[in-house]
Amino acid sequence: MMITAVAPTEDPPSRERLVPRYATYPTTALFRSDVGSAARAAWTAALPPGVVLSARLHVPFCRRLCAFCCCRTQRARSAGQVTAYARALVTEIERVARRLPNGATLKAVALAGGSPTILPVAAIRALGHALGALGPLAPGAPFGVEIEPHGVPRRRLDALLGIGMTEAIIGWQDLAPEVQEAVGRELRLDRAAATIADVRAAGAARVAVDILYGLPRQTAASFAATCAAAAALAPDRITLTGYAHVPWMARRQRLIPEANLPAAPERAEHFSAGASVLAAAGYRAVGIDLFVRPGDPLVAAADLRRDLGFWLAAPVDAALGFGAASVSRLPQGYVQNVAETGAYVDRIAAGDDPASRGRALGLEDRVRGRAIEMLLCDRRVDVAELEATFGDFARSVLPACAAAARRFPEVVRLVPDGLDVAPAPPAILREIAGLFDAHAG
Ligand code: SF4
Asked: Model pTM greater than 0.85?
């Protein structure tokens, strides 16, 4: 079971025709306030003994905010604010742990941000202790932590490794000075390289670098140069993520004029330029936007999954989210915590569960959600496999398969049990996925 590139669990649409990233299906925009804390409690208590879990902890604080970022983050006002939030996280984890059945196992963990490396050492250790209450971390389980690209003090790295961190996830975004100036960010290659060296020296088993295409002033050549600089440092994984311009959701993006953004054809060109550089450097494409070194367990995964933004080599029974705005996936449906950090801390302090909205999953949601996951993981929809899991209702996706073949004849091929898609940019794969979305407008 592997994990990498912790994507936001909320689901801003990608810029291309506003098609969602499908971190969940249905997307978080369709969650309802009548599914919340009671559903979370009942659904968690109904998990079977021996359940296999993943856990994702959201730390929504950063030292400074980047104009392009659409994650739910805020500038940390004080050390006390971060510490109080970390205490609330510990309490939330411990309360959920008390509802779990015997024999639960953690097969993947992510500490996502924001900047989780802003946490003091004592808070990191307390979170590690709380995670242990959910269940033992399975041997070799991936434990990804988003690491500040400018570097992290060795004491904090040691504390993170001490609680099980295996993978350092480092957001480069773009190294071209003119692009960084346009998005309010500053990261030099020598500093970024030093951070990778530091996390390796400290003992991180895996390093992942995230790079963003679709930014202002980016060109195919500048994007390829950033990808080449990353590949030269040989991180284990590189993710090429499309910038999502959603200023109505992320107000800080109003600093980026829409007119300065590359259009959809240029975005596709930039992605392709980066993908070519990575292929030439020996990286293998996995899923929709991930590139890994040969021998990575995800390459040989027989049942690759993309669960709340996690890439996993095998499915888990439930994905538990902790912290403000976090999403949990339980067998019966999704629940999401209250998004505002102060409200989250207050709810925990009052003894309340912070889940405030969610979505119970019906049969159609499950069938369509799994079909979309197949597309984004394996570029296929296998209706026979869907039927084996969901019965005859699985055939309800056949019209969407036919529609995909009509709309994208250059990449979609109908096969007896569904469809196959030739290698294509993420925007095309998301548009095909959108044809399976019953709620797409
Ligand atoms: S890109 Fe990273 S550091 Fe910048 S605001 Fe987003 S989470 Fe914070």
From this structure: yes
Is the beta carbon of 66 within 6 A of some atom in ligand 1? yes
Q: Mutate which of 6, 70, 71 to test ligand 1's pocket (most atoms within 8 Å of Cβ)? A: 71
Distance 148 CA to ligand 1 centre (A): 9
Q: 99 CA to middle of ligand 1, Å?
A: 33
Nearest CA to ligand 1 atom 4: 66
pLDDT tens-digit series, residues 384-435: 999 999 999 999 999 999 999 999 999 999 999 999 999 999 999 999 999 9
Q: Please give, one letter per residue, the 3-state secondary structure of the chain.
A: CCCCCCCCCCCCECCHHHCECCCCCCCHHHCECCCCHHHHHHHHHCCCCCCEEEEEEEECEECCCCCCCCCCCEECCCHHHHHHHHHHHHHHHHHHHHHCCCCCEEEEEEEEECCHHHCCHHHHHHHHHHHHHHCCECCCCCEEEEECCCCCCHHHHHHHHHCCCCEEEEEEECCCHHHHHHHCCCCCHHHHHHHHHHHHHHCCCEEEEEEEECCCCCCHHHHHHHHHHHHHCCCCEEEEEECCCCCCCCHHHHHCCHHHCCCHHHHHHHHHHHHHHHHHCCCEEECCCEEECCCCCCCCCCCCEEECCEEECCCCCEEEEECCCCEEEECCEEEEECCCHHHHHHHHHCCCCCEEEEEECCHHHHHHHHHHHHHHHHCEEEHHHHHHHHHHHHHHHHHHHHHHHHHCCCCEEEECCEEEECCCCHHHHHHHHHCCCCCCC
Q: What domains does the chain contain, in order, with CATH numbers?
A: 16-312 (3.30.750.200), 363-434 (1.10.10.920)
